[in-house]
Specification:
Distance between the termini: 42 Å
Radius of gyration: 23 Å
Helix content: 10-25%
CATH topology of the largest domain: Phosphatase 2c, domain 1
Oligomer: single chain
CATH architecture of the largest domain: 4-Layer Sandwich
CATH class of the largest domain: Alpha Beta
CATH superfamily of the largest domain: PPM-type phosphatase domain
Strand content: 25-35%
Number of helices: 7
Strand order of the largest sheet: 1-6-7-9-10-14
Order of helices and strands: EEEEEEEHHEEEEEHHEEEHHHE
Structural class: alpha+beta
C-alpha cells in the first residue's frame, strides 16, 4: 500500500504495511484519485441583478421592472469556454427567444486516463411547446453522462451512447406537467473525445435531428461533414433526389427524428452513432442549423477556423450567420484538436 497505515481509514481494523486492501471491510489502503470535472452550459439563466436596460431602474418584481414594467430579457448572446473548447449561442435576428443550448466539459485528475472531453449542441424544435426546456435539459444531461462514462474508463462509443440515452430521458422529462400533445422537443449532436497521443483523438459522434458535426483539418486536409441529418431532405437525397431539387429544398428543415416526450424510446439508429480517429491539427465543429443554413459546406466552415483561436472562430461564425440573415437561433461549439490554436 502507499504509506504505512497502522489501521484501515474506513473501519479502523489493524492492517499490515504491505496490504493494499483491508481484509475486514475490503476498502482500499491507498489514495484513490478523484476525477476533477469542469463543465459549462449556455445560455445561462436570465440574470436576477442589475439595472433595467430600458429605463435604468434597479428593482424588479417577479422578473418585471418596477419602473417601466418590461420583463427582464435574456441577453441575445451567451458564450463560454472550458479548457480549449469554445461555445457560443445567439438568439438570431427573428426569433423572440433562444431555444438552442450547448454544454461542454472535461475530466482530469485520474492517473492513466487520457485527456477526455464531451460537447453537446441542441436545437429546440420551434413547433413544439417550450422547446428551450428540452434543449437545455438534453445538452446538460448528455455531457454529464459522457463525462461520467469516460471518467470510468469507457470507450468513446459507449460514452456517446450513454450521452444519447441520458439526453433522451432528460428531454422527455422536460415535458412533465406540460401539454402531452405539444411536448418540448429538440435535436441533439454530441461528441465524446479521448486523446490517444501524437495529436490523435478518438471521437464518437451521436446525433438525432439536424444539428451537425464537422471535421475541419488544417490544410491540406479535406474538411468533411460527419453527421447525416434526420430530415425529409436527407431521405429524399438518399433515395436519389438531387440536392437542389424543389422537394429536397422544401424538406431541408423538416426533421424525422427528435428528442422529447413524443419521440421514440430510442430515437436514434445505428447510423446515427459514428466513431472515428482524427489527427490534428484541426477543429471539430458542432453547430445548429442556424449556422449551417448559411454555411453548409465543410470547406467554407474550415476557412473560419483555420489557425484561429477557438473563441474568435466561434464568434466569427456566429457573426457570419447574423449578417447572412440570422433567421434562426445560432449555436456553435469549436474544439481544437492536435495543436490547432
Amino acid at each position: 500500500m502507499t504509506g504505512a497505515l497502522a489501521t484501515c481509514p474506513a473501519c479502523a481494523t489493524p492492517v499490515g504495511g504491505s496490504d493494499r486492501f483491508c481484509e475486514s471491510c475490503g476498502g482500499p489502503l491507498f489514495e484513490v484519485p478523484t476525477p476533477a470535472f469542469e463543465r459549462v452550459a449556455i445560455p445561462r439563466p436570465v440574470p436576477l441583478e442589475g439595472a433595467c436596460p430600458d429605463c435604468g431602474t434597479e428593482t424588479f418584481s417577479d422578473g418585471y421592472c418596477t419602473g417601466c414594467g418590461h420583463r427582464r430579457a435574456a441577453p441575445d448572446r451567451d458564450e463560454a469556454h472550458v479548457g480549449v473548447i469554445a461555445v457560443v449561442t445567439d438568439r438570431g435576428l427573428l426569433h423572440s427567444r433562444n431555444e438552442d443550448a450547448a454544454a461542454a466539459g472535461t475530466v482530469t485528475g485520474v492517473p492513466g486516463l487520457p485527456e477526455t472531453r464531451a460537447v453537446v449542441v441542441c436545437d429546440g424544435v420551434s413547433t413544439s411547446g417550450e422547446p428551450q426546456m428540452a434543449s437545455a435539459a438534453a445538452s446538460v444531461a448528455g455531457v454529464e453522462a459522457m463525462l461520467a462514462a469516460l471518467a470510468g474508463g469507457a470507450a468513446t462509443r459507449a460514452a456517446g451512447l450513454a450521452g444519447l440515452a441520458a439526453a433522451t430521458a432528460a428531454a422527455a422529462h422536460a415535458g412533465v406537467g406540460l401539454d402531452p400533445d405539444n411536448a418540448p422537443s429538440c435535436t441533439y449532436t454530441g461528441a465524446a473525445l479521448v486523446t490517444k497521443g501524437q495529436g490523435t483523438v478518438e471521437v464518437t459522434i451521436g446525433n438525432v435531428g439536424d444539428s451537425r458535426a464537422y471535421w475541419l483539418p488544417e490544410p491540406p486536409g479535406q474538411a468533411r461533414q460527419l453527421t447525416l441529418d434526420d430530415s425529409v431532405a436527407q431521405e429524399l437525397m438518399t433515395a436519389g433526389a438531387a440536392a437542389d431539387s424543389p422537394d429536397v429544398q422544401r424538406g431541408a428543415h423538416t426533421i424525422t427524428r427528435w428528442l422529447g416526450a413524443d419521440s421514440e424510446a430510442q430515437p436514434w439508429a445505428d447510423s446515427n452513432v459514428r466513431t472515428l480517429t482524427v489527427t490534428g491539427p484541426g477543429t471539430l465543429l458542432l453547430c445548429s442549423d442556424g449556422l449551417w443554413n448559411y454555411l453548409p459546406d465543410a470547406a467554407d466552415l474550415a476557412r473560419f477556423c483555420s489557425g484561429q483561436d477557438p473563441t474568435a472562430a466561434a464568434r466569427a461564425l456566429t457573426e457570419f450567420a447574423l449578417q447572412a440573415g440570422g433567421n434562426d437561433n445560432i449555436t456553435v461549439a469549436v474544439i481544437p484538436i492536435g495543436g490547432a490554436t
